[in-house]
From TrEMBL:
Protein name per the record: Soluble pyridine nucleotide transhydrogenase
Organism field: Anaeromyxobacter diazotrophicus
NCBIfam families named among the record's database cross-references: PRK05249.1 (NF003585)
Family note: Belongs to the class-I pyridine nucleotide-disulfide oxidoreductase family.
This protein's encoding gene: udhA
Cofactor: FAD
Amino acid sequence: MLHYDVVVIGSGPAGEHGAVQAASYGKKVALIEKEAVPGGASANTGTIPSKALRETALAIQQARSRDAHGIEFSVSETVTIPELMGRRGLVTAREHSRIRNRLNAAGVEQFRGVASFADAHTVRITLADGSFQDIQAEVVLLATGTRPSHPPQYTFDHQHVYDSDSILMLDTVPRSLAILGGGVAGCEYASMFAALGVHVSIIDSKPRLLPWLDAELSIAMQDLFALAGIDMHQERRAQRLEVGDRDVLVTLSDGSRLVAEKVLVAAGRQGNVESLDLAAAGLSATDKGYLEVDEHYRTKVPHIYAAGDLIGFPGLASTSMEQGRVAMTHALGKKYQQKVAELLPVGIYTIPEVSSVGATEEALKQKGIPYVVGKTPLTENARANLIGEAVGFLKLVASPQDGELLGVHCIGPHASELVHLGSAVMALGGTIHYFTQAVFNYPTLGEAYKYAAYDARAEMKRLGLPGAQLQPPAVSAVPKTA
Ligand SMILES: Cc1cc2nc3c(=O)[nH]c(=O)nc-3n(C[C@H](O)[C@H](O)[C@H](O)COP(=O)(O)OP(=O)(O)OC[C@H]3O[C@@H](n4cnc5c(N)ncnc54)[C@H](O)[C@@H]3O)c2cc1C
Ligand SMILES: NC(=O)c1ccc[n+]([C@@H]2O[C@H](COP(=O)([O-])OP(=O)(O)OC[C@H]3O[C@@H](n4cnc5c(N)ncnc54)[C@H](O)[C@@H]3O)[C@@H](O)[C@H]2O)c1
């Protein structure tokens, strides 16, 4: 039987980065993937493909809004969604070769097949022809990810009723689309399809879209959705779907009805555990198919770790890769990175983008922590105007005592890039005075930080708060000149 120090199951962000991390410590590592291509939901069905469609939708929206008189824009009735994902083929192919090259360079041995436990230290690889090979492992990393959940009340025929995987195979751009579920996936697809000229309705059980976001941000997002012509049916569920010749009739929980040519169900995900035979290793999953782990990503069987979507919240490619690395660092007794950073940014690729890092006003209020807010509209930012996307705002939340930056919330062009600057300042314990004193390139979106910081400082001055004054620690956050 083959023997490895570490066996990783799944080649998505958690598996890839976990395997490479383990190999970098000089360990003998095997990675098992059931699909012909590596990269999981990130490269193949979720992150990258959805962002490829978004780039096309954004380009169409920008072309429409750039006042190019005499040029009309419309989406052809015969174009397919795969065709609209312009650069998807190229980006995905490059991701596949990047992942393979990295794994090969690190010396990770790759196996194709479905992995399951024969016992807690033996992983069985079942090949397409039914034959199998057993391999022994000192440490196992489970990174098998999730798939769209299929609530039993809906029938998914992938011709009228789709999930977030199959929607990307649409063979035409529909006239109308009803999206069941206003989570991140539902919101992103809603704004993409609306930009493609589709009449979109969102049906969501919550009173506000993405209610965990800073309230001002999520309300601004809802307002911009309404301006884009997206109909919102909130605090309601879709009770029944009736597929007709041309359209689907959707009956909501309050008895109201709507008609759409296609329906996308984006109502959460569930863990890929069925094929693993967890019981053979002494493990079990939650009812959503997630695995419970401790702060080191260790399951209740100490040499078996789990990372990525399989452990539930937050379910992002960005955090999954860090969890994979941290899990392997702990498993192999190394000290370098024992924890995933506490500041977790979230990037939502709606049109416009929404991004956030650190504390929200609501969270601070709940904890009784005082704060001040500084805000600047991106309509006043020269770069946002130049690129024809002068919409949204940048908002800073800071301590009234010394101006320490506590949170950054942004809706507008490239928001997911923009929050990284605030995130770095926060991680280094900086204050809003860094922004008031720093020189920014001009014109840039980043320059908006200066005006949001001035706004926070003005508020502190008005209220006579000490944070308005430059404090010694704040000065040290400004680059030294001598
Ligand atoms: C529409 C959509 C858009 C998204 N956009 C973003 C985004 O913009 N930013 C972001 O950070 N995140 C985004 N995500 C989330 C992101 O895709 C996931 O968080 C990420 O892919 C999770 O990585 P993972 O490694 O845990 O699992 P996955 O990427 O799901 O990989 C799991 C792998 O395990 C393999 N596998 C499963 N079972 C077995 C088995 N028994 N044997 C062998 N192999 C097995 C699977 O084939 C798969 O390749 C998006 C998700 C969706 C659905
Ligand atoms: N940019 C990003 O980071 C990004 C983008 C897309 C997806 N993702 C990830 O993909 C995963 C899936 O996202 P998701 O949006 O499908 O799940 P989700 O769990 O985030 O949201 C599902 C939403 O659907 C609602 N809902 C559930 N059943 C319903 C019903 N029958 N009728 C009406 N509403 C219903 C829920 O209340 C919730 O608001 C998440 O982990 C998410 O983080 C991330």
